[in-house]
Structure formats: C-alpha cells, structure tokens
C-alpha cells in the first residue's frame, strides 16, 4: 500500500503543474476522488501497517490542500491584475491637487453623506464610538438576536430582500446591536451605528426601498429612560439647531421594552402647523426604547447588572426635514441640479 502512495505522489506532482485548483480538488479530494478512495481503503490494511499508512495519507492530504489553496490564491491575484485598466487617466483615490488639470472635476460628497458627517460628529463629541452596518447580513443579526424568534409575527413588519443563500439585506441598522454589544463590552458601551437599509415596499414621498438609518445604543449600570430622553433631545437640538419640545408615545418593537415613539415639536412653525408637520405642530420622528433583556443576554451582557437604551432614525427623513425637501426620493434619483442646490 505504501508503494501505491508513492505512485500517487508522483502523478500528483505532475498534476500540480497541469491542473487548476478546482480540477485538483475534483480529482483528488471529491467524494470519489483518489485520496478519498485511499482513506476508504484503510480498513482493509494489515494492522501492523495501518498507523504508518494513515499518517502518510493524512500528511499527503494536508500538503495537497495547502498546494490547492496556494494555487487558488495565485489565480485570484492573476485575475485581479488583469482587471486593472492601465489606461485609466488617474487614480480616483489620489489627492485632488495631484490630479491632472485637464479634467475639470466638480465632484463633491452627497448631501446625505455631508449630513451624516455632522451627526456622527455630534455623537463623537458626546463620547460615542462608531460602527458602520453591513449591507448583507444573516437571520441571526436581522431577527433572532433582537428577540424575534422564528415564526414571530413581528418579522412581517420588516419585509425586505433575501438572497438565494438565505442572506438578508438589512431592513434596519439594529442588525449591528449584537455585534456592538460584544465588540465594545464591558459597559459602558456607547456606539452609534450608521448604515444603509432596504425595504421591499412601494415608494412614495416619505418612503424609499433604500435609505440610511442611524442607530445608537448606550449600555451601562443604572441607565434609565431619563438618560435616553436627554441624549436624543440633545442630539436633535444640536442637529436641527433649535430648541425642541418633546413627547414620548407608546410604540411597538420586539427589541425594546418599553417601546417609545419620539415626537418633537415642529422646528419650522413653533407648533402652529405647516406642511412639514402635516399641520399638527408635531413630528413623529423616530423609534427608541430600553433595550430588551433578551437582546442584552444574546449580546453577552447581564441584564441584572446593566440596562441600556437604543434608538433608530431615518437619515433621509431627518435630512428632508432639516433641508425642507418634500419628496425623499429626490435624494437618490441623481438629479445633479437638485443635489447642487441643496
Ligand atoms: Zn410645522
């Protein structure tokens, strides 16, 4: 049997030069591959040779796997080299003043990103860390870690997009709560979580299928609703550059308890009523609440010792309110004249 192994090693040496990583995998390591078959044969070998044979076979398999992975990496590197366009006029990442002047570049950051910078700056000054959310996530972070067990009816409130691999385009930035709790533990944990979200729904002047959300969590010993109210009010007053009156109304979210709708006095009409506040004088701006003990537990935080609050607000909506935009879809339809006028 040891002789058979030597023969196979010789063929393998030739194949390493001739076959691709995928072909090598198929020939040697697949369900009926050469090495897999040799492993199946171990049971028929004389007991005195079994150990040595097994060791040699294992070491051969490890070597081959390593060679295949090296080969696969080389292929990827070669591919990416081929994909670089050497005729490209300049490196888009180079400093503006180093770019050729032939092209009159008038690029600037999008209004949503400009406003996001302002908001993140406010929170950084309040001592918050920043962690950006992902644009593709899994069921655990989208639902289970947030106290939506499988089959929970509240899952239907979040109709989003799924891939064939069962990954989800996040419908909220709360997908990051579990990661933030684990990454910034032990408390105090203060993190703001901006990111892109997606909903499978019809669009209108105040709803989009793609939008930005800014989430935040604050966890420590003895955190109360009073801390939440003060933090959110301070943030909104700084961002909207005006004093605000606030109201807190009951709402429903599985991942907070109690669940609260944060309502602000209209910053434009001093509660007299205008088109921005639909003539009510108040704007229902965002959801918030005390983080549910199950969410803390799933993030490895002891809810007996710690408490915390969370909030989430749509960036597009906030920017639309601040800049007097009557249709949030305009923020994403690429009309340069509209964007420049903002
Ligand atoms: Zn108003």
How would you explain this protein's 3D organization?
- A hairpin with a 5-residue loop joins strand 4 (246-250) and strand 5 (256-265).
- The protein starts with a helix and ends with a helix.
- It has helices at 2-18, 21-29, 34-40, 47-83, 111-125, 139-142, 177-184, 225-240, 293-298, 315-323, 336-341; strands spanning 129-130, 189-198, 210-220, 246-250, 256-265, 282-291, 307-314.
- It is built from eleven helices and seven strands.
- It folds into two domains: 2-83, no CATH class; 112-341, 2-Layer Sandwich (BirA Bifunctional Protein, domain 2).
- It is α+β, with helices and mostly antiparallel strands.
- It is elongated, with a radius of gyration of 29 Å.
- Bound molecules: zinc ion (ZN).
- Zinc ion binds at residues 266, 268-269, 273-274, 276-277, 281.
